[in-house]
Amino acid sequence: MDANPNQKNSWFYRWFLNNKTVTTLLVVLLLLIIIFMVSKVSFIFEPLKVIFAAVGTPIIIAGVFYYFLNPLVDMLDDKTKLKRTWIIAMIFIALIGLLIWGLAVFIPWLGGQVRSFVENVPNYWHSFTKVSDEILKGNKYPQLNSIVNELNDDLTHWFKSSSSDYAKKGFSSVSSLVGSITKIGVSLVTFPVILFYMLKDGHRLPKYLTHFFPKRAQSSFQQTLKDINSQISNYIRGQLSVAFAVMIMFGIGFTIIGLPYGLFLALLAGLFNLIPYIGSFLAMLPALGVALSVSPMMFAQAVLVFAVEQILEGHVISPKLLGDSLEIYPVTVLVVLLSAGNLFGLPGVILGIPGYAVLKVLVTKLYSWWRQVSGLFDDDDDAQTDQPTEASPGKHSN
């Protein structure tokens, strides 16, 4: 019901009911009260935390594979006469073939590379300190030389203490290791089942969820789901494609310069590249360390490989594969990564950006709805009053 003229002219209406600042503060106050009340009854949500801890990992893995494989399933479904179930089954057979190849060839190779790399880390560090001593010898850089020597002593002590600690804790950590292996095994067994049904019936989920809402809100809710799905799918497919391209580029570059463990370091670079912006720099740290332990010339060649990769990734690969699909400022990305990493660790670093993208869509939609229904924004009123004026010449012209 619209307010009468006397109500609109009253100080209470002007200062409280029709005041954007007061309304915003009231909304924030209500949100804080809700958060406070939820924190007081957090024990109610403990079963949900247990359930998510059990099924969260396979659902997340299945979701990543879903967004990566669903375009292929849709394309084959449109261009062939096969049923969607048969298409998914053939893709699963191909994935099983890749898995068998990985277990037979790739995993043993990777395990050997990791074991050899870890065993040679002290040797690489010794070579690194030897090269640094040759560079810094003399009295030209006495302060820098003392810093390097102190860092060398600290890291040497850390290597020795870490090895002894791991030896002492070996037996006590067996139970936790068995628990982790069991959890990983359950996730690997259950996520293909979840993935199968996501690929088979995932396109029906928005329509199913929409029918729970009133008819006047169904269109807006369906568009919100579409925007969220677009944000997540663009990010996952783009980020995985960029990471794979980065792995290929580093693999070629490290092989050309003859860097030890080049393919393993390239694989590590691809995994680190799943972290936006800072992933490539993190991936280059072990590569540069290994290169410097070999020779200064190898270090210079590794820096050149890194520079070429950054140019190709920044100007060719990322704009083509990832683009600006999320429309998030780089500073915002770094803030989200730091915050999510401190709160949730490695999963937060990987899932923080898509989570922020989903939250951004929801907040944007909610704010747009609030502008339309609150009556507190004059520009919406002006837009509504301008519409008949723009349409009136058309009526006279008929």
Automatic annotation (TrEMBL):
One of its GO terms (cellular component) is plasma membrane. One of its GO terms (biological process) is transmembrane transport. Belongs to the autoinducer-2 exporter (AI-2E) (TC 2.A.86) family. The keyword DNA-binding does not apply. InterPro entries: AI-2E-like (IPR002549). It comes from Weissella viridescens. The keyword Cell membrane applies. This is AI-2E family transporter. The chain crosses the membrane at residues 21-45, 51-73, 85-110, 177-199, 240-257, 263-283, 290-308, 328-359. It is a multi-pass membrane protein. PANTHER family: PERMEASE PERM-RELATED, TRANSMEMBRANE PROTEIN. Keywords: Cell membrane, Membrane, Transmembrane, Transmembrane helix, Transport. Pfam families: AI-2E_transport. It is found in: Cell membrane.
